[in-house]
Amino acid sequence: xxxxxxxxxxxxxxxxxxxxxxxxxxxxxxxxxxxxxxxxxxxxxxxxxxxxxxxxxxxxxxxxxxxxxxxxxxxxxxxxxxxxxxxxxxxxxxxxxxxxxxxxxxxxxxxxx
Length: 113
Description:
By secondary structure, this protein is α+β, with helices and mostly antiparallel strands.
C-alpha cells in the first residue's frame, strides 16, 4: 500500500478568508421584577426574576409548593443570572423540581419581553 502524500498547501498568492461569525442576538428585557409559575407532579414553584438594564440581575424561588424542600434546588437561581438564561443544570433526584423552576423562570421572562 503506497504511503499517503501530505496535503499540498495553497499557493502563496491565494488568499484564504474566514467568514465572520454573525453577532449573537442578545435578548433585552424590560426592567422590573417578574413572577412566573412552573408546575410538576410534586407541586408548583414560583420564581421571581429581577431585570436591570435589560439583563437578568437575579432569580429566586419566591414560593415552593412542592412536597419536597426546595433547598435541594437552591443552587439553580444564581445560574439564571450567570447564564442570562433559564437553562440551568439538572439536580440529581430533583428532576421534577428542576423542571418546575425552569418553567417558572421561562414564564417570568416571557412577561419581561
